[in-house]
Amino acid sequence: MIQNSDKLLNKRILVTGGTAGLGAHLAIEIAKCGGIPIVLGRDQEKLNSLILQFESFNLALPQFHLFDLTELDQMTAFVDELNEVDGLILSAGVNDKTTVKFISSKKIDKIFDINFTAQVQLIQQLIKKKKFKKGASVLGISSLSAGYISATNSLYSASKSALEQFLKTLAIEHAPEIRVNIIRPGLLNSKMASAYDFSENIDEFINQVPMKRMGEFSDIHPLALMLLSDESSWMTGAVIPIDGGTSI
Ligand SMILES: NC(=O)c1ccc[n+]([C@@H]2O[C@H](COP(=O)([O-])OP(=O)(O)OC[C@H]3O[C@@H](n4cnc5c(N)ncnc54)[C@H](OP(=O)(O)O)[C@@H]3O)[C@@H](O)[C@H]2O)c1
What we know:
Layout lengths: L11 E5 L4 H12 L3 E6 L2 H13 L6 E4 L5 H10 L3 E6 L14 H24 L3 E10 L12 H21 L3 E8 L5 H4 L7 H7 L8 H12 L10 E4 L6
Parallel strand pairs: 1-2, 1-4, 2-3, 4-5, 5-6, 6-7
NADP nicotinamide-adenine-dinucleotide phosphate binds next to helix 1 and helix 6.
């Protein structure tokens, strides 16, 4: 078994959006640090591929639950059965770029239901049902877009800003029992990035990044693991960019 450290030894960490992309990467890294990821997602095929990755690293298979986080009944049933957790990563998220002119109620709901409302409801249920252990750490995955505006991204930017304000309020209300910190990644080499229409201007975009490249999931996990661990026990309410310097 590959175990890099015991930084998260036996810590149970719930990971929304854990079947794909950054969330899946973080679930593997949590396991490599001795933690116990509890993976949430919707897609069985993506989960199967994550399980193969766990097997390839000879890691104990994660606990997993597949349901749509925007379905409140399913979330409630899940939280009712959940044992206490030491941490939570909010990585589930979607984007659907559109100009202001073409915003519709359906698009607002699509983005806000998962990027904001579901995360608020999940945390509220975890608190009310006493599912956070004392000293638990919550990690919000926001985005550079929460503070750095670009055309066609208004709903995504607004949803991530809303999430950040909610999480900072949570940090105030629940210190010192629960710590809450936020990472703002810049553009990552990912499925979400490849959905953007960068075909003609990707070089131009990368040229504006002081570090001259897109980020990789491996650029995010060292800080994420630190924020989940007791190494960051005096950190709460922090909003930290990892964006190759784009937000300077
Ligand atoms: N990629 C980037 O460049 C970038 C940059 C900054 C911030 N971020 C943020 O980082 C996070 C992860 O991004 P990513 O690139 O890893 O995205 P991704 O590959 O598209 O993964 C998104 C995850 O969210 C889950 N999800 C979406 N809607 C859901 C719903 N209604 N119910 C339950 N799960 C749902 C997906 O599950 P299923 O696939 O099973 O449906 C998937 O596991 C997001 O919050 C994103 O906003 C990404």
